[in-house]
Design a protein that fits this description.
Blueprint (H helix, E strand, L loop, with lengths): L1 H7 L3 E5 L3 H11 L6 E5 L2 H10 L4 E5 L5 H17 L3 E5 L12 E5 L4 H14 L3
Parallel strand pairs: 1-2, 1-3, 3-4, 4-5
Helix pairs in contact: 1-5
C-alpha cells in the first residue's frame, strides 16, 4: 500500500457523499496517509461552496446526488475536470451512469473494497500527473 500512500501524500481530496456513514468511512480510508487533506461535504451545495474557495487535487463524488443541485454539480464537475485536469471518481450504487466521462474520471460501483478505491485513486493521480 506504500505506492498508494505516496500518491495521496500532500494531496487535497474533496469527498461529496450524502450518506454520512459512507462519507466518514471514505475520509478515514484517505486519512491513512497523514499528509492527505480530506474535505467532506454532505451535499452538492456544500461542495459548490468549498470549490468556490479551494480546488482539490481529486474529487470523490456520489454519482447520484439528490435534487437538481446534484445534477448541476455533476455537470459542473465534468467541465471543471476538463478545464483544470482534476480527476474524479464517481461512486455509484449501480453501473447505469448515462453521462459521458471526461478522460480524467472513472466510476466505482458500490460496495467496493478499500483496495479498489485506493488503486483507482493511485491510477488517476498518476495518469493526470497530479
Amino acid at each position: 500500500m506504500a505506492t498508494i500512500d505516496i500518491a495521496l501524500a500532500g494531496k487535497k481530496v474533496l469527498v461529496v457523499e450524502e450518506d454520512i456513514d459512507a462519507g466518514f468511512a471514505l475520509v478515514q480510508t484517505l486519512k491513512a496517509e497523514p499528509t492527505c487533506q480530506v474535505i467532506f461535504a454532505t451535499s452538492a451545495l456544500q461542495a459548490f461552496k468549498i470549490i468556490g474557495t479551494t480546488l482539490p487535487d481529486l474529487f470523490l463524488v456520489n454519482a447520484h446526488l439528490t435534487g437538481s443541485d446534484g445534477n448541476s454539480f455533476i455537470k459542473h464537475l465534468r467541465l471543471l475536470s476538463l478545464r483544470e485536469r482534476i480527476p474524479i471518481i464517481f461512486l455509484s450504487d449501480d453501473n447505469s451512469l448515462c453521462f459521458p466521462f471526461p478522460r480524467s474520471a472513472v466510476s466505482l460501483q458500490k460496495p467496493f473494497k478499500e483496495q479498489a478505491l485506493l488503486t483507482s485513486i493511485g491510477a488517476l493521480l498518476k495518469y493526470n500527473h497530479v
